[in-house]
Each structure stands twice: as structure tokens, then as C-alpha cells.
């Protein structure tokens, strides 16, 4: 029982640390109080969706497709939205961080790209030998209204997609924009993503 309580306490403190970071980083980048309140609420709700998924499986691993569905469902993505890749169970850290990235990507898609005009293809792969397998996730959005959303400045979404998620998962991320497409790529060691790796 003491071990269980210590584990619960550790996880709650981690969640508080993430929430405090979201508030601090959002506050530093939002000039309008109403916009700040709205964005913080949205981001904390996105973390809550990830937490609900983890709780529903007793922290035993969340299917990536389920995480995508949970992060996309609250928004109107009336354009084509497809996802494909092998079945993979994410550990808690990957669920929270990839969930945060997906939230920022979906928000940008809805607010700036125009869901009726742009399409999203989300795909992931696992490659390499068993000792050095790599996880690769690609968000490809075509027909965008504004090609380089992250060029707007140093917003919290930019920080999440360019630095925070990759650092938390021991990997790298890139953001490429063309005239009519944006592509975000995350590459990380599979043991930092998948649950149950010995």
C-alpha cells in the first residue's frame, strides 16, 4: 500500500509540474487575458484526455490510435483526416507528450488552416534492428491556408512541437513548411515510446 501511494504521489506531482509549465509558458506568450484563459483551459483538457486514457487501462499502455482519437474528437475536423501505422502501446510519458503535440497540431489545423480546405495524414513507423529500433511519427497537412504556422513567433505550440516533446522522449523533431503543406516529424528511440520494452 505504501509503495502504491508513493507511486500515485509521484505521478500526481509530475502532472502538477506539467500543468504549471503549461500555465507559465502560455502566460509568457499570450497578451490577451481571455485568449490566455481559453488556451490554458484547452491545454489542460488535452492533458486530462490523456490522463483518462491512462487511467482506463490502469497505466498499462495506451494504443496510439486511441490517443489520436481522443485528441481529435473534441474538434471539428471536417476535412479528410487519416491515420495509419502498426499497433503500438505507448507508455505514460509518451502518452502525455505525444498527446500534447497532437493537441497543438489539431488546434493549429482548426484555427489557422481551415478544416474544410486542408487534409491531414498522420502516419507512424518502427524501423531498425531490435537493439536500436526507432519510432517515427509524421503529421502531413496539405492544402493549408497559411503555410508556416510556426513562423508566427515563439508561441507555446511552437515550443511544444520544436523542443519539449522531442526532449521528453529523447528524440528529435522537425517542422517543414512549403507553399501548400506543413509536415511535423518526431523520431525517438522505441524504448522511450513503447511500454513493456525490456
From TrEMBL:
What InterPro entries does UniProt report for this protein, alphabetically?
Sig_transdc_His_kinase_HWE
Give the EC number(s) under which this enzyme is classified. 2.7.13.3
Q: Nucleotide-binding: is it a keyword of this entry? A: yes
Cite the GO molecular-function annotations of the record.
ATP binding; protein histidine kinase activity
The UniProt record lists the Signal transduction histidine kinase HWE region domain at 7-87
Q: What top-level branch of life does the organism fall under?
A: Bacteria
Identify the enzyme class: transferase
Has the keyword Signal been applied to this entry? no
Reactions catalysed, semicolon-separated, are:
ATP + protein L-histidine = ADP + protein N-phospho-L-histidine
For this UniProt entry, which residues form the secretion signal? none
Classification via Pfam families: HWE_HK
Which SMART domains does the protein's record reference?
HWE_HK
Question: What are the record keywords, sorted?
Answer: ATP-binding, Kinase, Nucleotide-binding, Phosphoprotein, Transferase
How is this protein named in the record? histidine kinase
